[in-house]
């Protein structure tokens, strides 16, 4: 049955969601990656879809199943993720839940590096593009709402507040992912929403509930008019 328009406040809106880790190859069999199950990203995309949004889901190799009903763009590296996000524009909002590897190996080997006694591979790292900062800094065609995550282990709120300002995004969801919180790889999350105006601590809840609350807030922020 068709939901009432009031229940689908994001109808006509396009939202890009990044999710999962990126894998940066060292050679054909080895890579550098971040820890990320993709659970929070998939839950966010699913919540946006339930509110009627059209969702482009750009995901690295994640454990969590991708959301049904999104346009799914599978990627492996940060550079591929950047290209996929830029190709998906324009969007009304973009949510960056991916755990992007900060560095990649310069001149990754096309053939498998063999171990040799006493000789360690000489890997040079170069910095990956900051996809969130690029999109948040767009002079023309920037999504109305750009949302990042800050997974921290120390000085969570201070680090995340500085990160929001540095990257120029509208909101950051900060979370403490220290071992012992059970958040990495778990079903729950405890986040603080940081905006230009301040911060708001949300109680610990399931990742699905965090996603629903975020999607609601996003719908309120974008307001009416998506279908026009
Ligand atoms: N992000 C991104 N592209 C990158 C790095 C991060 O889009 N190359 C996004 C993440 O998806 C997240 C936010 O930026 O939404 C913050 O990521 P984080 O790793 O916490 O920030 P960094 O600036 O990389 O700082 P650091 O890892 O040193 O804490
Ligand atoms: Ca990082």
TrEMBL record:
Residues annotated for CTP binding in this entry: 102, 112, 129-132, 149, 163, 167
Instruction: List the catalysed reactions.
Output: N-[(R)-4-phosphopantothenoyl]-L-cysteine + H(+) = (R)-4'-phosphopantetheine + CO2; (R)-4'-phosphopantothenate + L-cysteine + CTP = N-[(R)-4-phosphopantothenoyl]-L-cysteine + CMP + diphosphate + H(+)
Pathway, per record:
Cofactor biosynthesis; coenzyme A biosynthesis; CoA from (R)-pantothenate: step 3/5; Cofactor biosynthesis; coenzyme A biosynthesis; CoA from (R)-pantothenate: step 2/5
Q: Where is the DNA/pantothenate metabolism flavoprotein C-terminal domain?
A: 10-220
User: Which parts of the sequence are annotated with region: Phosphopantothenate--cysteine ligase?
Assistant: 15-228
Q: Which coenzymes or cofactors are required? A: FMN; Mg(2+)
Q: Which UniProt keywords apply?
A: Decarboxylase, Flavoprotein, FMN, Ligase, Lyase, Magnesium, Metal-binding, Multifunctional enzyme
Cite a single GO MF annotation: phosphopantothenoylcysteine decarboxylase activity
Give the superkingdom in one word.
Bacteria
Q: What is its EC number?
A: 4.1.1.36, 6.3.2.5
Per UniProt, the cofactor note for this protein states: Binds 1 FMN per subunit.
**Which family does the similarity line name?**
In the C-terminal section; belongs to the PPC synthetase family.
Q: What does this protein do?
A: Catalyzes two steps in the biosynthesis of coenzyme A. In the first step cysteine is conjugated to 4'-phosphopantothenate to form 4-phosphopantothenoylcysteine, in the latter compound is decarboxylated to form 4'-phosphopantotheine.
Q: What is the recorded name of this protein?
A: Coenzyme A biosynthesis bifunctional protein CoaBC
Origin species, per record, is: Limimaricola variabilis
Region of the whole protein represented: 173 to 400 of 405
